[in-house]
Amino acid sequence: MGTPLVQRILQPGEIEGLDHNAIARLLLPQPTSLFTARALRLRELAQGNIKGIPVDAGMQGYLVLMAALADAQAAVVAKLAPGTVPVADADALRRAVQHRMPVLPVSGARPPVWRDIFRDLLGELAATAATQPALSAGLTQVLAQLRALDNVALDACADAVLDENGDNLNPMHAPFVAAALQILWSSSASGLRAARVPDLETGALCPVCGSHPVASVIRIGGQSQGYRYLHCGICESEWHMVRVKCSTCEQNGKIAYQGLDASDAAPFDPVTARDDKLANKANDPKKVARAETCDDCHTYRKVFNQEHDYNVEPLADDLASLMLDLLVGEAGYRRASGNPLLWLGKGEDQQA
Q1: Contacting residues for 337 by C-beta, under 8 A, at least 6 apart
Q2: DSSP letter, residue 166
Q3: pLDDT tens digits for 210-219?
Q4: At what angle do helices 151-163 and 113-131 cross, to 10 degrees?
Q5: Domain ranges in the chain with CATH number 3.90.1670.10
Q6: Cα gap 317→226, rounded to integer Å
Q7: Which end of the chain is more exposed for a tag (fewer CB within 10 A), N or C?
């Protein structure tokens, strides 16, 4: 009879030192299916069908509009001819590895094709407005304003979106510009090989494009089982970060989960953090959407758990869970980064 196996709980430093081949370090986007799935999720959220994410009636119409935008993104992606979107060349990959920098940085010049993508997106939305009376009134007006933007104004809006500078943005224009940028970067990112994308000096930024994450997501299945990933709001990539770190300041001593039910909030315990994978604790609506707060930097970022809702979609779920933002904000925490599909405009301290 062989020696019995004893499972040993890994400490935080040991978790970080695991062979990256054993954990899916980077999950690259699949834009051909991503935007369609997002549109479906947004409509489910708008209809109040997601138990763990209650949606206020005032938000339902906006979620339906963003679902139409995601449908338009999917249509544009489906029509992109091969080679339309530039990919990272060998020199770019070599520089990224040498300097531990993003392979497809959002800083710097954008390929001019992004403006064509933007105009194609407006065309798809115009077709939607013509067939959906509930959307046509407000959407037609915004589309007219967006079409009137010249290249200088359009690029300035794109710069502000990528810089996350809400003070210099029209909050009604920004989501549509952000949607075109998502198409551009996700299409480019989908052509990468994850193994060739280097880690950055910080784990708080996307290794593909350098943007901030929108939210965290606990994934299930294969090498991703039970691990936390940060979801990029621009290139839609996801990268692994251990569940004992603040995704803003990367400290691990004062993390807690805050839920819509105050009694569900509890300090983060690295020993028991992953035991919600157990079968008898699955599908708990209270754990679909929670805010991970840090008392070192006093920020928070939401985490969505696929173990409790298989169809979680980080960007859509983040957009719909404004109630959680309000509750955590009232508790004294500020949001770490915004959602590219919602901008509150000038005078607001944070994006929802």
Answers
A1: 164, 212, 213, 214, 233, 301, 351
A2: G
A3: 999 999 999 9
A4: 90
A5: 25-189, 202-335
A6: 19
A7: N
CATH fold for domain 202-335: FdhE-like fold (3.90.1670)
Tokens of 165: 């500078």
- Decide if pLDDT at 45 tops 50: yes
Q: Convert 129-162 into a string of H (helix), E (strand) and C (coil).
A: HHHCHHHHHHHHHHHHHHHCCCHHHHHHHHHHHH
Domain 25-189, CATH number (from 1.10.1740.10, 3.90.1670.10, 2.40.128.20, 1.10.10.10): 3.90.1670.10
C-alpha–C-alpha distance, residues 231 and 245, integer Å = 15
Q: Tell me the two tokens of residue 334.
A: 């500020």
Which tens digits make up the pLDDT trace of 165-207? 888 899 999 999 999 999 999 999 999 999 999 999 999 999 9
Rg (CA), the chain: 20
CB burial readout 33-42, b (16+ within 10 A) else e? ebbbebbbbb
Distance CA 319, CA 316 (A): 5
Amino acid at 71: D
Q: pLDDT tens for residues 65-100? A: 999 999 999 999 999 999 999 988 888 889 999 999
Q: Which pair of structure tokens corresponds to residue 220?
A: 């299930």
pTM: 0.87
CB crowding 97-116: b at 16 or more within 10 Å, else e: eeeebbbbbbeeebeeebbe
Amino acid at 83: G
Structure tokens at 69: 């935008």
Bridge pairing between strands 289-294 and 299-305: antiparallel
d(Cα 24, Cα 195) in Å, to the nearest integer? 10
